[in-house]
Design brief:
Helices cover 77% and strands 0% of the residues. The protein has 319 residues and is mainly alpha-helical.
């Protein structure tokens, strides 16, 4: 009897994550029945493609749990990718290129964090302003020109496509697993949940909400820089528009994965399921010979269902 009660509590607690996982498994089941070629030709490729998105989504999960949001990550992603390409062309070793991109992302995240945490400005307003400022600065600096003629040791980290793809997925898995462990066992990271749930109560418990908020934006920026490198090594050139729309894709995946948009709750397992589900819809529709326009419609329906269920769960939790 106790085991049944514990299982029921577990299901109730993680119902959003389980719903995202069930939807993904249902999609995979449909592909196995109606388009089995998907698993031979495209399945592995979707995980490679989603690796940079997942890395950025890990950071966004922390920010949303802290009851904030960052819509400037697409612009940060573009800048970090271009920086990585330029440094690689200049002959800088790839590991140092990655460190520089991560550092640049962390600095941009630091700017957002300072304005949000210590100036008291709403995060959506701050990051909207920095999104436009960063994007226009990059447009002025590059005039739309991609970074071309990248050295051979930069693309796929110089390992060849197959090995490079494996490394991309491995890095994304390590980042996700490491932060999932930290969110469960490290007090400093657990403080993010306290701040997102009730910042005043967290302050009374000895937590400094402003510092926690600042740290989440810095971490997100650094992870966006890493994501930009993981994306840039996949192509022979770095497109200055590579990050356009990334913020919407990442935020949608995080919310679909069960992270509460009003803060205080979320898991990286749910984020993983949300990213997997939303990034697989497009390729799946192609293999099912359905119009590509249905991708946005399907994603929108899933996001709407996730937000609606979040609203429905709140009264139940308070009952």
């Amino acid at each position: 009897m106790q085991d049944s009660v514990d299982m029921a509590k577990l299901i109730t607690r993680y119902k959003r994550e389980l719903a995202a996982a069930a939807a993904y498994l249902a999609l995979m089941g449909a592909m196995a029945i109606f388009a089995p070629a998907f698993f031979r030709d495209e399945f592995a490729g979707t995980w490679v493609w989603m690796s940079p998105v997942l890395v950025a989504a890990v950071g966004m999960t922390l920010v949303i749990i802290a009851r904030h949001i960052d819509i400037s990550i697409g612009s940060q992603f573009c800048i970090c990718g271009v920086l990585a390409g330029l440094l690689a062309k200049a002959g800088i070793p790839v590991p140092l290129v990655a460190v520089a991109a991560i550092g640049a992302g962390a600095i941009m995240g630091m700017a957002n964090g300072l304005l949000v945490a210590f100036s008291g400005l709403p995060s959506i307003v701050v990051t909207l302003a920095t999104m436009v400022a960063l994007r226009e600065s990059l447009r002025w600096a590059r005039e739309g020109e991609a970074v071309r003629h990248l050295p051979a040791n930069f693309q796929w980290f110089g390992l060849g496509q197959r090995s490079g793809e494996v490394l991309l997925v491995f890095i994304a898995a390590i980042v996700t697993g490491s932060f999932a462990w930290a969110m469960r066992y490290l007090a400093g990271v657990r403080a993010i949940f306290a701040v997102g749930s009730d910042s005043d109560a967290a302050r009374l418990a000895g937590i400094r909400p402003r510092h926690v908020t600042f740290a989440t934006f810095v971490i997100l920026g650094g992870l966006v820089g890493l994501a930009a490198v993981l994306n840039a090594v996949r192509f022979p050139q770095v497109d200055v528009n590579a990050g356009n729309g990334l913020e919407l894709a990442v935020i949608a995946a995080v919310v679909v994965g069960g992270t509460a948009i009003n803060g205080g709750r979320g898991t990286l397992l749910g984020t993983l399921m949300g990213v997997a589900l939303l990034t697989t819809i497009g390729p799946a529709l192609t293999f099912l010979h359905l119009p590509a326009q249905w991708e946005r419609a399907a994603q929108g329906a899933i996001i709407l269902a996730a937000v609606a269920s979040d609203r429905a769960i709140q009264p139940m939790a308070g009952a």
